[in-house]
Design a protein that fits this description.
Elements lengths: L8 E10 L2 E11 L4 E6 L5 H8 L10 E4 L2 E2 L6 H7 L1 E4 L11 H6 L14 H14 L15 H13 L8 E5 L7 H16 L3 E5 L3 H7 L2 E6 L2 E8 L5 H9 L19 E8 L2 E8 L4 E6 L8 H5 L7 E6 L2 E4 L5 H6 L2 E4 L3 H5 L6 H6 L3 H4 L8 H14 L15 H13 L5 E5 L7 H16 L3 E5 L3 H7 L2 E5 L5 E4 L4 H9 L6
Parallel strand pairs: 3-8, 3-9, 6-7, 7-8, 13-18, 13-19, 16-17, 17-18
Antiparallel strand pairs: 1-2, 1-4, 4-5, 9-10, 11-12, 11-14, 14-15, 19-20
Helix pairs in contact: 4-5, 5-6, 15-16, 17-18
């Protein structure tokens, strides 16, 4: 009789402390061969800490054990040993270099070299990349720069690199929020690729905030809350989004506060004749206190509109009128738009929105320094009061104004970014994917804050691919059907929005 196979990954009693703060407590996790096991939890629950211990970035507290295929790894984990044991990781940003070719990206860390001179053997490198792509049924030219690929192709290249040194049918791939940039069709193809990999015996540990995706593709799910595993290896067939969210939060999920739909009024913000990347003489009007959504097919061009309207990307033509202010969007920039009361919460908070090496207080205070301070003197009292109000209003955790942004979870970073631009008292608040890669609790906090801002008379443009977010807070939704056409709909169900975007129902 054949003995049962050892778990692909077995984590037992792993803990991690930073000073007096214990962020991971006796965590256990078991992933079987050929299984897709999801790891979920709020931001700050310990997910990222556990992944960083598995990959050797963090040193765990004494005690505990990590086994791969029944063999113990030395602790702290040495990445070379973990890689040899069969652990591979695909990070949130995929870790790809746009200026390098597909073959060069796949070969990073293990390039093919000539035998005598030890120079990079480009022919063998391309062949190795082609073999790795073929094993995943991916038709991608190895000599094309990665920057020219679609989001789905980039994700495929990252998977091919992760599997480059794995023995077929073995190993564990860790996906750390790796699918967040894929649209629904790309996700379908990506999941099919994962299933082929798992059918051969390779296991997948998926870290994700997307509960819909988790429950549709994962075999089992483990839930972390406050550093503890509160649900280990639960069969997803027996779960719902609501039940998983309750485990994550320790209570029923607070919903987004709904409000009566704003009646259409004369626009407080009027954009006319907008031309530029993704726009060809578009007109957009938003009333005071109105929340208007904007969405479309991923990659179609609607994602560029918030940056044109906020002056972050120069337009070829177009004017923005806000109160007594008028901005020529072809000549004005971010500063002119801010003076007119137009602010943008960008999609990439780490790159475009926050100073990661500064504190919560410094980030929130930054846009209003000139209005409160004097030359050679800024003052701290007003900053402390302003930050305290923002922390209380948005539930920013920890309640520590001097904590560095880089030390916060993604959801709390997003709350700080929203507070930063709300501090200027905007006329128009533009948000691009404000709930991307945040947990269900932070999502509700952010969307409720958006609704409260609208209740004070702020006009809001919410640009998102998340139909549930749009339905939750928007008074109406603009569907992008090309650079010169926007359909205007009202929707109470996400399916109505998706139908309008993907063309299965005529928008009215």
């Amino acid at each position: 009789m054949t003995a049962p196979a050892a778990p692909r990954l077995e984590v037992s009693g792993i803990s991690k402390s930073f000073g007096q703060t214990r962020v991971l407590r006796d965590a256990d996790l078991v992933v079987q061969p050929g299984q897709l096991h999801a790891l979920v939890g709020q931001n700050g629950s310990g997910k990222s800490t556990l992944v960083k211990i598995l990959t050797g970035y963090h040193v765990p507290d004494p005690g505990g054990e990590i086994r791969v295929d029944g063999s113990a790894l030395r602790l702290p984990v040495r990445w070379a040993e973990a890689r040899t044991a069969g652990i591979a990781v695909v990070h949130q940003d995929l870790g790809l270099l746009d200026e390098l070719t597909v073959a060069e990206n796949i070969g990073v860390g293990g390039v093919e070299r000539t035998r005598i001179m030890r120079r990079i053997d480009r022919g063998r490198e391309c062949q190795a990349a082609a073999d790795a792509l073929a094993a995943l049924n991916l038709r991608i030219n190895p000599v094309v720069p990665v920057g020219a690929l679609s989001a789905a192709q980039r994700a495929g290249v990252a998977i091919a690199r992760a599997m480059r040194d794995l023995v077929p049918g073995s190993g564990l791939i860790i996906l750390d929020e790796s699918t967040r940039t894929l649209d629904r069709h790309e996700l379908r193809d990506f999941h099919a690729m994962l299933r082929r990999i798992m059918d051969a015996g390779t296991a997948v540990l998926m870290v994700s905030h997307n509960l819909e995706e988790v429950l549709s593709v994962a075999d089992r799910v483990s839930v972390l809350r406050d550093g503890r595993v509160v649900g280990g290896g639960l069969p997803t067939a027996q779960l719902t989004e609501k039940s998983v969210a309750k485990l994550m939060l320790g209570k029923d999920v607070d919903g987004v506060t709904s409000a009566a739909r704003a009646r259409r009024t004369e626009p407080a913000i009027q954009v006319t004749g907008l031309c530029g990347p993704g726009a060809a003489r578009l007109d957009i009007g938003i009333g005071a206190g109105e929340v208007v959504g904007l969405t479309g097919l991923p990659g179609s061009g609607y994602e560029r509109l918030p940056y044109l309207i906020a002056g972050a990307q120069p337009a070829r033509a177009g004017r923005l009128a806000a109160g007594q202010h008028t901005v020529d969007l072809a000549r004005g920039g971010v500063a002119a738009c801010i003076r007119a009361g137009v602010v943008l919460v960008p999609e990439r908070r780490d790159r475009d929105g926050l100073a990661m090496s500064l504190s919560v207080r410094d980030n929130i205070s930054l846009p209003t320094l000139r209005t409160h301070g004097r030359r050679h003197w800024v003052g701290r009292r007003w900053q402390h009061e302003q930050t305290g109000r923002a922390i209380a209003a948005l539930g920013i955790r920890p309640n520590a104004p001097t904590r560095l942004i880089s030390e916060l979870s993604g959801g709390n970073q997003q709350k700080v970014l929203l507070a930063k631009w709300m501090s200027v008292g905007p006329r128009l608040l533009i948000l691009h994917e404000p709930t991307q890669a945040v947990d269900v609790g932070a999502r509700a906090d952010i969307l409720n804050a958006v609704r409260r801002a609208a209740d004070t008379g702020v006009a809001v443009l919410l640009v998102s691919a998340e139909a549930a977010d749009l339905v939750a807070v928007c008074d109406r939704i603009l569907i992008y059907h090309g650079p010169d056409r926007l359909a205007d709909i009202r929707a109470d169900e996400p399916e109505v929005v998706l139908d309008a975007v993907y063309g299965t129902r005529t928008a009215v």
